[in-house]
Specification:
By secondary structure, this protein is α/β, with parallel strands linked by helices. It has 2 domains: about 210 residues, Rossmann fold, CATH 3.40.50.720; about 100 residues, no CATH class. The protein contains 11 helices and 12 strands. The protein has an 8-stranded mixed beta sheet, sandwiched between helices. Strand 1, helix 1 and strand 2 form a beta-alpha-beta unit. The longest helix has 20 residues.
Length: about 325
């Protein structure tokens, strides 16, 4: 089926999130009318950035309250829409029955709309290559439309941390099968590997998400990204040790110990101060510092200027697998950085 034409109305679930917020902004830039679905329209700490986007004042962008866990919450929102971008996360991927229920009620709202012709579902690269046995990647190195993790591996269980990957596969299959049965709408599943770019709202930095860690590294404010928010949340602000002093101390997602400083102190404590060890340390640090390349502006600090936040613009990197389903036919496209 043809994609919705310019000026068509598209609903976006999970619009307050990092990916969802960018989907809303880019749809507006391309001339679409957007219905942004958020949990609480009046919560300006999470939805306020949407209200200042181009199109909100003119009415091309409207905000709608929807609780993903409540059946029928999208019935009125999807009615009259030509497309749906389903970006919202379920609260528990480890519960397969719950994931199925949420998908089923979203699909029911799509069918009731009578107008939706295309649905884009956000999955994950974890639905393509999340392997319990890394040798499986050696045995099946080609990542194409038929590539799924080895679901016969007995270690592929929720208890071993595979719930997210398993839940994503359940969701994309439910939408694929529903689209094939209906014949009235297409289902496109995107499996992103990295989502990196400017952060549009402060709340999107909560719990140290990957794009926030990348932001801190580019600005020279963190030595090494390693689940910044989770250290503070799960370890209660205690330092994590890795054999070379305290690499960093995280309290509420903020890093308080500089890896480079601690590494330097460690080397200074060595009586011999071996040259090779210093070379390895210098190389290790340099590999993580922002580099001047033809594809990126030079570090502002090298010119004596203060570091600046990332400018507005399109996300720097959104790449991975793109599964396209048209009447049950599946294709995958990969795009590099």
């Amino acid at each position: 089926m043809a994609a919705p034409a310019k000026g068509a109305r598209v609903a976006v679930t999970g619009a307050a999130g990092f990916v969802g917020g960018w989907v809303v902004r880019l749809l507006l830039d391309k001339g679409y009318r957007v219905r942004a679905c958020v949990r609480d329209v009046d919560d300006d700490t999470r939805a306020g950035f949407l209200k200042v986007l181009p199109g909100h004042a003119s009415g091309r962008l409207t905000l709608h309250a929807a609780d993903l866990d409540r059946e029928g919450c999208y019935d009125a929102i999807f009615r009259g829409c030509d497309g749906v971008c389903h970006v919202a996360h379920v609260s528990d991927y480890d519960d397969a029955a719950y994931v199925q229920r949420v998908c089923d009620h979203i699909i029911a709202s799509i069918e009731k709309s009578g107008s939706v012709r295309r649905v884009v579902v956000t999955s994950s690269i974890a639905a393509v290559i999340s392997e319990m046995d890394l040798q499986e990647l050696v045995r099946r190195p080609i990542l194409d439309e038929d590539r799924y993790p080895d679901e016969t591996n007995p270690k592929r269980t929720v208890e071993r941390g595979q719930g997210y990957s398993m839940g994503k596969i359940i969701a994309q299959r439910v939408f694929t099968e529903a689209a094939a049965r209906s014949g009235k709408w297409d289902a496109i599943t995107c499996c992103p590997g990295d989502n990196v770019g400017p952060i549009q709202s402060a709340h999107q930095k909560d719990m140290g998400p990957w794009q926030h860690n990348i932001e801190r590294m580019l600005l020279g404010r963190v030595g090494q990204a390693d689940h910044a928010g989770h250290i503070g949340a799960e370890a209660g602000g205690h330092a994590r040790r890795r054999g070379v002093g305290e690499e960093r101390l995280s309290v509420g997602g903020e890093v308080g110990v500089d890896l480079r400083r601690e590494r330097r102190r460690h080397l200074e404590r060595r009586p011999d101060g071996p040259h090779q060890e210093r070379r390895r340390a210098a190389h290790h640090v340099q590999a993580r510092l922002p580099q001047e390349t033809p594809h990126r502006r030079p570090d502002r600090r090298s010119r004596g200027e203060a570091p600046a936040e990332a400018p507005w613009g399109e996300p720097l990197v959104i790449h991975g697998a793109r599964r396209v389903v048209e009447r049950g036919q599946l294709r995958v496209h990969f795009r590099g950085i």
